[in-house]
Amino acid sequence: AGDLEGFRILSAVEFTIELEMPLLLFSVMLTNAALAIIPEGSSGFDTSWRETCVGTGPFRVLQFDPGRRLELERNPDYWRAGYPKSDGLVFIFGLTSGQILGEFRAGRLSLATDLSTADVDSLRHDSDFASCYREMPRLSSSFVTFNTHRGPLADVDVRRWLTSAIDTASIVRRVLGRFTMPAHGLIPPGLLGYETPRGTTGSGALPRILDEPIELTAVTNAIFTSRYLDLTTELLETMKRMGARVNLETVSPDELFHAQSSGSVDMVINAWVADYPDADSFARGLLHSEDGVLGAMLGSKQLDALVERGRIETDPSVRHGVYRQMEDLLIREAVLLPLFHPRNYRIARPELEGLAITSYTYPSVAYESLWVK
Fold it and tell me: Which residues contact 167 (CB under 8 A, 6 or more apart)?
């Protein structure tokens, strides 16, 4: 845009932004990489990395083969003296868990993630690697969304019937292990609105309130029928024993987005990763009836009011209370079934120094501090 209302440039290094209303999280939203400042006059980014990328980071792109390999070299103009501590980094993509494990043990990978639970367990029980493990929660939630506006799940009693008997915490611990955290709400740890569990997510009993079995349509993405297949299978089998047969289809990201935004299915099994480290990214990003990804399936005036209040409130303690009300409403009306929050972890080889997971957002690892003995 040639002009932006409320945006004023004061000098070559200073500008102001005037908002229509208070927005405590505005500075947090500015941390989204999509809001990076670009050189004046830039109109397109369709040539090479070297010609179009501008940055002040510790590394710069040397070579990029999408989906396979990324090679970075030290930025000689990095502003922090003494950093980065390594001459470069190489990221390898597209490996299976077994391939990652094999390359890591052979010393051809210094840092590993995206391993299966069994493979991580094997490394953590290995004395050579046990002390080289680091983790923290991701700003992400996985859940089952119910369509509250059409079909069998428009009946709140049916939704409560489904959620009351499914002990998701037990299922998650059993099939996904310690590398995910069972969720009892939408908001993950570390954000306003999160509190430790006050009870289990399901009683384990099978209440019967339906005279006839029901059939539900559902969609999901590939990760829930590959890496999280065991979890998905247990959920669907539990629902089947309760009398709810789910016809699940794995679809592309575009098809999944369309199903959610149109409300064309009864259920969606999906995950959400925050765009910025604030509960608003989950509240407005997912729940708002007009702006939220899931608005067409579960949006309501009550949720909209809480989402908007959470945005403009400037007192953190009050904001926390607003998001607690939102979470209570989600559970009380059984509009979704929380599943888990993934953990962000890395395992290093003993010769790698300086590993720390320091941020909820990417890059979560301070790569400029890594070096090999």
Answer: 200, 201, 202, 203, 204
